[in-house]
Amino acid sequence: MRRNLLFAFIGLLLCVSCARPETDPEIIAMQGLLNRVVPDYANKFKLEHIENDSVDCFELESVGRKIIIRGNNANSMAVGLNHYLKYYCKAQYSWFEADKLEMPAELPAIPEKVSEQARVPERFFLNYCTYGYTMPWWSWDEWEHFIDWMALNGINLPLAITGQEAVWYKVWSDLGLTDEEIRSYFTGPAHLPWHRMQNIDRWGGPLPMSWLENQEALQKRIVARERELNMKPVLPGFAGHVPACITRIYPDAPLASLGDWAGFDSICWCKFLDPMSPLYTEIQQKFIAEETAMFGTDHIYGIDIFNEMIPPSWEPDYLGRVSRQVYESLAAADPDARWLQMTWLFWNERQYWEVDNRIEAYITSFPKEKQLLLDYYCDRQPVWERTDSYYGVPYIWCYLGNFGGNSMLVGNLDTINARIEHAFDKGGDNFCGIGSTLEGFDCNPFMYEYVFEKAWTGDLHTDKEAWIEKLADQRAGKEDPNMREAWKLLADSVYNWPSTPGQCVMVNARPTMGAYHQYYVNPRYRYNNLDLLNVLDKLLAVDSDSRTLHFDVVNVTRQMLGNYFSDLQKEYVAAYKDGDYEKLHENEAIMTEILDDLDTLLNTESAFLVGKWIADSRAIGITNEDKDYFESNARNLITTWGEEDALLNEYGSRSWAGLTKTYYAYRWKEFFKDVNAAIEANVPFDEEAYHKHICEYEGKWWRERLYEFNAEPVGDGEAIAKEIADKYRERLVERYLVN
User: Quick one: 321 exposed, middle or buried, by C-beta within 10 A (0-12, 13-18, 19+)?
Assistant: First the structure.
């Protein structure tokens, strides 16, 4: 017995670092995070570094009056801190910078030692699109908060593409292009993700030089902090995308047009340089050298050469040669390079890729250990199941969860749990990570935290009901039966369906008497809307004043009203076609009420303010001209997404205060006015004339500063939600009660 105790004591000495805490970089980094996340409690924690290079791990333990956090690196320690905050302090560190962590007066003790290990080495986060739908206007304050959130959730492989235009400016300048040629090649700031993915050029440009300088400085801070917290930023590489005017310098450069994307004019079509050309390797080397000089490197590069585009050839031999040459160009620039790419194209264009062994030819033409694939949309369709586990190429299982930053209550907890566990069971030895590829921050943040908890060995996340109970406690800051019942009802009714493109309530859609004018409009929901009224009643009965409770109250009420509006709109159209004008006017009155009430409600929550989005865009500008330019670009992305009546019109729609009151409500009120005028004149409603008028208005809304908006919340969300519940209760019960 004594011998066993001696060996255990020696093992403990070996596994805990003997480095002095004040000189250990892992502890220094974690101490910095503690000082930012829990500044008033930082001295109540003791940090210890476990020497373990084989697997990420953390331990939690109470010793005396201290909370001990051990981990093999700062990232693992951060996961341990988050575990303690969530499951002992009942506190939640939100990804919204405006939401402050709410802690108990005294730190709870840990009854028994907690030990967890990472189940997978890689935990990936972000999507190119997130940099447009959420992050284009972020300052360091938002980034610093968000990087801490990523560390707390164990993310160690973040996409880091900020500031790359500064690198490209240097590369294109060195190759002989002019300032005007380069900056006109870039799109506007919010549209840069699709420029970076080889979808569009020029639209919304030229990009101001002040933007390039701002983003370069910001990226240096971003990657420095991410590396400090044991993350490996995924930097961009050269994917073959070049300015069309490069032929002025290289007239024989073998370029191919990648053609139309989303209906943009041909002047915006991207040009693809043949990777077989020596010029391709030359540009790759120049870019990687300049990027490394500016931002350093962790030797992982994101390159996607055919995302939502058609390759010059579908021949498997061609696809294999192209991918091999891209890798070889990357290896020539960085011998330690690893190529990361998303597999969205294998699902989105599956009718082309899933024939003639094209996927296999494309991803197995160079060493498997030199690449990493993101299985992009596993909440809908895991591609690893369709490709023999990617033929042995390492891949990360990803939850997408949101398109366009749309604000719709959606998520599929049971499916996510089952599919991740299935990947662990059947996904092959090359299944190496869990991640998320959300297009925009949305109104269901807990879904992403759930996904990342499944990357660790704790067993709570395997029991959905127990996990939801704990989530409810965190969002109330205490155990409250009403909060638990509310979240159980949400989990059992609402959160049972995956996100799809265009999910929005009909408030956000351009009105029509026929089929939806926008391609991306999906107002369907698969639960009884009365469930949300019941959830709201439970939330309003919770004895708490937490920020997360306020968000939940506004969020649920917002969706309930939006669903009701969508259903009333169907009845309105049917009433018009049936000539039942009494019913039509009755629905019009209620829908108009909803528009006004919805905007009043949304004004109380900082996450739902178009004014903040606009104010943040203007804050980046130095001159008034730049400020106006950034604001116009910000307005465009969330409305027409390009020119008026474009294919992507409304793709980035969201239920935000200000946007609802002006943009959405104006369209509906003008629609009602025109329909009523047609009825009074006993003539058919002229939808074409209405459509033309509204398109003109939409263009003015984003091009001109027609309105000013609140950048800070106004009003008492809980009080307004209660008024709304009382006001609409009888109508909702009558409409949705199922006997």
Answer: middle
